[in-house]
Write a structure and sequence with these properties.
The chain is α+β, with helices and mostly antiparallel strands. The chain has 13 helices and 21 strands. Helix 3 packs parallel to helix 8.
């Protein structure tokens, strides 16, 4: 590896030592992949839910539509929805003045969070247009996912296409991105402000296109003029910003957050990231599982620190060519495992003794393939049952008749298994990839801990089973969530029989 790349190559190890829950990261410098790293069991090519990072893609969809002459930034929002305007009341002058550019810059004029009021309705566009607009559009920044949804709905109206269909020949196809999934509103329009899934490397391609002024592999995807507008300050997001999140108080563009050093980013819940820094000729795409978005600021701090050091290093090597070449043939430094970083990790799942301890500790649990009926809980889980199959087993979870989450999940005491299961993404339940693993902690024989890593999202579910006098105690933990994150519930054996406590 060229000595000029040593600083960026440190990033995965720095992330690990900082305790940041980064699942995948791709770093491009000068248009070349310098670092590509995934934390097991996450890997290259698996689509990742982007949450609000979807907004930045919707912004580019608007830019493309403008370039094609399908709409203008100063078009009035109500002009696209004449059949959805409020009935029986005089049209609000602020609603009448709302333009496409105001939706893009999060200055539509709403004072409060209108998300709950909009998504609780079947027709999101009509619900949006029925919300009070207290401020003059363009004068008040208020982050609004429904505003981005309206952009998606507008592009779909003017193109007469589903948003993904519109973007396949204009954005995704030219970037070499396979047709992605994008969650929709109840009427079938792409959610716009959330719900898009792209792989980490595809997000990096998107970032490189932005860095190159809308060009990718010689093709102009979106005009440089639109990129300039979208990534320069269009509204002021500094009021009320948390001081520890400095890169969230540098101004806001068209669905992009502005950062220090002249950089900008799209981001989403739990730390989904597309960072572009023209000063450093740098793009970073990351998928994370941060329980707090303050950790995103920590990640940005680490990236900018290395970028500043790298910039100084490149200046020195330019003045002293013997210091090494820059990037040679776009070589890629990939870190696919924690071991490659020289870091330790738990080997409990790989331990030969794990199967023996499991057999001893769980004999009571699997006896007669018992089913445990659970008390009422926030998740609505009704019962669980264990079906032993030699060295492995299946967990049956039951949410009631007709619930897609009910089913069987395979586990093996010697290694993780990948299968599919229905779990939530951004808006609704989806069948997706899940990696299951199981451990019997050494501190007690009567605990079974099962982990479900939904590798298309940040979600990790951990079930811990404790023996009880006539059943089990089940603990549920979710690493990140918009709602509840944990609960504990008692489970009684269905029918006759009690668990031997000896």
């Amino acid at each position: 590896m060229s000595s000029a790349l040593t600083k960026y190559a440190e990033l995965p190890e720095v992330i690990q030592r900082a305790g940041l829950e980064v699942n995948g990261l791709v770093l491009l410098s000068g248009g070349h992949i310098v670092v590509e790293w995934y934390r097991e069991p996450y890997r290259r090519g698996v689509p990742q839910l982007l949450y609000s990072l979807s907004k930045s893609v919707t912004s580019i969809a608007v830019g493309i539509a403008c370039d094609l002459g399908l709409l203008r930034l100063d078009d009035r929002v109500i002009s696209f929805f004449p059949n959805k305007l409020p009935l029986g009341a005089e049209l609000s002058p602020h609603l009448d003045a709302m333009k496409v550019r105001h939706l893009l810059s999060m200055t539509a004029g709403h004072e409060e969070d209108i998300y709950p009021a909009v998504v609780s309705q079947r027709d999101w566009a009509a619900a949006f247009l029925n919300q009070p607009v207290q401020r003059v559009p363009g004068t008040h920044y208020r982050y609004s996912t429904p505003s981005t949804y309206m952009l998606s709905a507008i592009v779909e109206r003017v193109s007469r296409m589903n948003l993904v269909d519109f973007l396949m020949p204009t954005l995704f196809g030219p970037l070499g991105i396979d047709r992605p999934t994008w969650e929709t509103c109840p009427l079938g329009a792409a959610a716009g402000g959330m719900g898009l899934s792209l792989s980490t490397e595809d997000v990096a391609k998107f970032g490189q296109m932005l860095l190159d002024g809308g060009v990718y592999e010689g093709q102009q995807i979106v005009s440089a003029d639109y990129i300039r507008l979208a990534t320069s300050e269009q509204s002021d997001n500094r009021k009320g910003a948390r001081p520890e999140r400095v890169d969230s108080a540098q101004g806001y563009g068209f669905q992009f957050h502005l950062c220090r050093f002249g950089a900008y980013r799209g981001d989403g819940s739990f730390g989904q990231l597309c960072l572009v820094s023209p000063k450093h000729n740098l793009v970073v795409a990351a998928n994370c599982a941060f329980p707090s978005m303050t950790k995103l600021q920590t990640l940005l701090d680490l990236i900018f620190e290395l970028a500043e050091e790298e910039t100084g290093h490149l200046k020195k090597t330019a003045a002293n060519p013997s210091g090494g070449n820059r990037i040679e043939n776009g070589r890629c430094r990939r870190f696919d495992t924690v071991e490659e970083l020289g870091l330790s990790r738990s080997s409990a799942l790989r331990s030969p003794s794990n199967s023996l301890r499991a057999a001893q500790a769980t004999r009571w649990l699997f006896a007669a393939n018992r089913e445990f009926v659970l008390d009422e809980n926030p998740d609505g889980l009704r019962s669980i049952a264990f079906y032993s199959i030699e060295k492995d087993f299946e967990l049956k979870i039951d949410y009631g008749e007709g619930d897609e989450r009910s089913g069987m999940l395979p586990f093996d005491f010697t290694h993780p298994l990948e299968s599919e299961h229905v779990f939530v993404k951004d808006l609704s339940l989806h069948r997706q990839r899940v990696v299951t693993s199981v451990e019997v902690p050494e501190e007690t024989e009567r605990i079974l801990q099962m982990k479900l890593q939904y590798i298309e999202t940040p979600y990790i579910v951990t079930y811990t089973v404790y023996a009880a006098a006539c059943g089990i105690r089940l603990s549920f933990e979710l690493n990140v969530s918009f709602g509840f994150r944990s609960y504990e519930v008692f489970g009684r054996i269905r029918g006759k029989g009690i668990i031997n406590s000896q």
